[in-house]
Amino acid sequence: MSAVAEGVLLAATFACLLANACEVVAKAAGARFVTENAAEVGVDRKWIPGLAVLEGAGAAGLLLGLLGLPRLGAAAALGLVLFFAGAVAAHARARVFHNLAFPAAFLFLAVAALGHFLGAA
What we know:
The structure is a single chain. The protein has one domain. The radius of gyration is 14 Å and the shape is globular. It contains 5 helices and no strands. The longest helix has 27 residues, at 3-29. By secondary structure, it is mainly α.
């Protein structure tokens, strides 16, 4: 893999970590946009704390991967890929397309992070 490609994937991994950390804080704080979006796609409000824990575990795994545990980083990235594939599917199932770009962007970042860690492992 070229140095440019490695740099792009590394930057995307950092962006994935930051974006997920911010989203976990928003979920934990009960941000209105989180609860409204969940209701719109048919996710019960009581699921939000559990989803925040899963997403937070993914972000923590990315951080540990960046700190020298690339296999853990790859596992965390794969978990986030599955998490956001589920989010995209929930939006599609509910026919909520006006904000589909957000889970799709998170999915894209998670796939890039997975690529980074698979290249490093």
